[in-house]
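1st attempt posting a full record on here, be nice pls
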Amino acid sequence: MPAEGAPCRLRCYDCLGRPHYCETCLLRTHRRTPFHRIWQWSTEDGFWHKTTTGALGMKLWGGHNGAPCPNITRDPRMMVFVHEHGVSSMACSFCECAEMAGGEQLVTSEPLQLVEMGLYPASWKQPRTAYTITLLESYHLLSLQTHCSAEDFYTYLRRKTDNVAPKTVPDRYRELSNSAREFAYLRQCKRAGEMPGKTTTRGSLTVKCPCCPQPGINMRVNWKDRCADYSYLDALFYSIDGNFRQSQRNKPMDKNDVALSRGAGYFADVDDFREYASKIGKPEPELTTCHKFGAAGYGGHNGKVSGIIALACRHMFMLPGSIVDLNKREAYLYVDFAVVSGMQPYVGLRLVKQTYDIACQYLINFGRRLEHWKQLCLPLASITTFNLPRTEGAIGLWHSLAHQILCRIFKSPEFMPGSGRYEGEGMERLWAITNDVSARTKEMTSGHRHDVLNDVYSDLHVRRVHNIGMMTLRRTSLNEAERFLQETTEALEKLEQSVSNDKLTEWRRDEAKWLRDVVDFRNHEHMEDPYSPHVDAALSEAGALKVLKEDKSKTSGLQGVGMVSAIQEMIEIEREKLRLTKKVREADPLKTRQRNALGRRVLALQGQAEVCRRQYERFVGERVTAAVEDIRLACRSCGTEGASVDAFPLSCDRGGETSNDSGTATDTEYLEMLHAIHVELPSYYTTGIRTHPKMEEAVSIEQKLREGQAKDALDELRTHLTALYSLEDLRGQGTGQAHGQRVKALAATEVAIGHQARDEYRRVRKVLVELGMPEDDKTFRILTDEDAKPFIVFSHQHRRGDSKRTGSWLWEDFSFANDQGDNEVKEYMYHKIRPFWFRKRAARARWQEEVYIKREEMYRTTLFFEYYRDRWSARGMDAAEDGREGAMVYARRQSHRYARLLADARHAFPSDVSMVRKGQCGCERELTNIVQGIGFAK
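the predicted structure (as tokens):
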């Protein structure tokens, strides 16, 4: 508070220290800062009031560094100035001094005088409103970062000016909207080095992807000489997708409004598309060979524009001239124009890789539709050729789950040669980033909407260019690709060690033919699916029994075969006893028929067990008796009594026990009957009996049968694990309570069977350990809950991230297939291994391609930055020769910017990015110069 009678009754809140001023000093010191916030002390009210320099008599003078013009003849004009601190009014006088320009005496126009003072005029004749350029820069950045609307921003300024009565502040929202639009367009032109106006060329205001091939900018001089097998390294990867969030309301608007960036941004030429649509007419419906997708005709908005269709590269850069506004629905009419328009800068490439939600249908008749278009001979300025590069189509991995199984094979990037690890879903991430701007753009006129969207996509691209070394092409992503390549290579090598050379030769021949044919969709009808098994049975215990009988008939004659049968039947008795014990305990006491049926099964098992016991005594009993006598004699000779235990020679009874739980009388009766069933196997004996030489053959037989039993349990576990895994898709394929209950019931059944198989394997493995199997056996390992992970056999079970997951040990080793004596069994095994091998080969190939692609992209990125560094440097020199100092300075700044990006990229990329490793997964350390690169003839 100023002292009574003090002359300093003004205070500036923006000057350092918020000093106090008298009126004269304040006006003198604020000639260069007229928009500072000023507060005036009111003696009458006893507090500080807001005021402005304009209210205190400040005037703006144009043309003489803030001093009055000596030639002024007109009175000052009151103007509204919008700045970062709010809105204020002030008198403004413009310079009337004439200067020689083109042989004439000309006075600098009022708008240009405002620009020289750092102000942007709201109109270009006699402006009465101006905005500070710093304000427009702030709003431009806020609109891009937070998608703040011009209305919200101007409301904020009005409240900042007078938060008590903001409506009393002059309304300049409309002028702000127009000026911000112009300002953003001028900044785009400046960034691209283009003169604003109708002379801007196609796509000249876009920001291109440094990683993708840009003909004439960042490709090798001899890229056309590269081997066809490596043509994917020079291919453009792009996705097509529609977005119905980017709509436009159907309301009265200026029909003459056109985009300032018309034809120079990411939208296709509006006039050309209108001409094309009118001549093409209503397209004929095309039959679909797959499901009927929303993408084939969806339109969820009834406004003037229902959405957009667009093309973006694998690094989420929109392609120039590739966005088309949709009316009502996403039809091939719009997609075809977006593709042809977006591909114009890339017609010189040999190959493009396209992903689309409905790629299985889109490319089938694309050639026919293109021929129909060409026959119309439309003179379109933006379409110079229809000779597009060879296109290979695929479906994004996420969208492929909605397709038929064959589409997930023939159109999956996982199995398409040359796809790398591109999943084809970059557009979805792009929409997630930019969809918020639709709240603003749907209310705009058509031209304004295009300008804003072009600006938003360019800003996103600029940010990605600035972070290309740390985000898109970071060194860790290459290291990760090389690591996964190494892991998949090792897994493949381990698998191939267990397969005969003849089979590998046959499979590699089949794979080469499949990879050669799959790129042409016309071959798909007659092609097989090598990535899914032809049969889904398991080599059962019966198969193992057959092998054992053949082996024992050769070594031990009929006695050996009989022993195999006796032990195998006793194992069956054991398994049925366990199964019935569990069912009796779980049976509903109120269901009489169920309990009677269980009683009949128990009685039948008693009879079978008695027959089995006699056969077991015949073939195994004598050996057990001999072993027992030897052990008793040894115990007597050393004076021990260890062999006189009642249970000897048995150590336990795994055949099930009666339950202590309370139950019905029938429960107890059945459980006692089951408990009375005598089960005796080599594994039930004490260690001394099992290890006795006379029991060696019997123990060996049970061990092999138990191994078959363990394998049965593992295969059943595999089957039900993958079945349960796929129920997630089934849950999303229907609606309603009935569908949900069916899926829930299926899931409960699969879980129960899977748990039963898991528990069975753990039980049998415990028996195998007692029979002498090492605890760390590599074939039958300890099965934890974490190990119950499926190897994806069927395409409908694919999940995001599967390519980076380490497979469960359940699916690692198939060496036992070569040991099968029965040709039918061996062929079955190979049929089951074959799709695993194909998938392992595909995974390794995709990671190998990804390593090559990333290194090539890094190389192209450095060439891209070098190109624009040199281009801006040349522009700076041209501007210096023409005496355009402002253009010269900005060009030097841009050249320095690309020099920094180049230095950052070289620092972020591996030091040998200019070299390409030969051989698989970089195992051979020999390097070849990048100037030649991978895939070129030596």
